[in-house]
Design a protein that fits this description.
Elements (H helix, E strand, L loop, with lengths): L5 E4 L5 H11 L3 E2 L1 H6 L5 E6 L2 E6 L29 H6 L5 E4 L6 H8 L3 E6 L2 H15 L2 H5 L6 E4 L2 H4 L8 E4 L15 H10 L5 H11 L3 E7 L10 E4 L3 E7 L1
Parallel strand pairs: 1-2, 1-3, 5-6, 5-8, 6-7, 8-9
Antiparallel strand pairs: 3-4, 9-11, 10-11
Bound molecules: S-adenosylmethionine.
Length: 251
Amino acid sequence: MSGLVLAVLLNPDRQSDCQHLAERLALPVLSAEQVMADSGFEFFLSYRDGALKLLDRQSLKKGGLQVEIEPRPGEQHSWPAPRKNILAQAIGKKTRTVMDATTGWAQDSLALFRMGYQLRCLERSPVLHALIADGFKRLSEKDWVQRRALEMPELIYGDAITLLGDLPQVDCIYLDPMFPPKRKKSALTKKSMAVLRHILGDDLDRMQLFEAAMSAAGKRVVIKSPDYAEPLAKPDQSFRSKLLRYDVFLR
Ligand SMILES: C[S@@+](CC[C@H](N)C(=O)[O-])C[C@H]1O[C@@H](n2cnc3c(N)ncnc32)[C@H](O)[C@@H]1O
């Protein structure tokens, strides 16, 4: 995140949450007036509409990005959702425990959670970690989660390359590192992913991550990648959709 100019935008109704967040992430807290007066800051974290949001200058007044906890279009609302899509096929029929080692906006994690896998989540960006923690808290307060007393995914902060070997073993380690884009700018890229790339850059150490996952996984490693990306090694199986591919490596 080098060179990124990020601050916490003060929400006067959640002053102490803003202060805690700023202390944890070592960021300045700015009022709306200070933000308007100082154009040096590019991104902001703030509490708005009951969620922690990542804002850019265009969304300072309204909107912003948050961990979306509702199912994506085409995904089931029921719990457990059927394990029928290619993500579930890649994760494997016999898999019970999954580690998402690259949680990001947690959309894959949340799909896995809804399909009933026992899930652990790792994230090394402190900003994304804070956004995910907020999303999981909102999820834990949902009626359908409380009624079933579902166990929430465990969220761990840190670099998977160094942590995976020390954590309890899971059946499947799931990786979705940031690959370089095919074109410089693609109209198809969702804003959340474009912002993630802008603030974090590509994950250039994905080979080390793959190697760490291969030594730590109980049964398999799954890597999600864009359709145009070369596999990191020769996979045992691949599952494809229009724009992406899941490569499966058995242990
Ligand atoms: C492309 S995003 C993942 C998107 C995610 N699958 C989703 O559904 O929203 C990649 C994320 O993995 C994280 N990441 C990459 N390498 C990591 C590592 N070695 N340890 C922990 N997190 C990592 C990045 O910080 C980033 O947030």
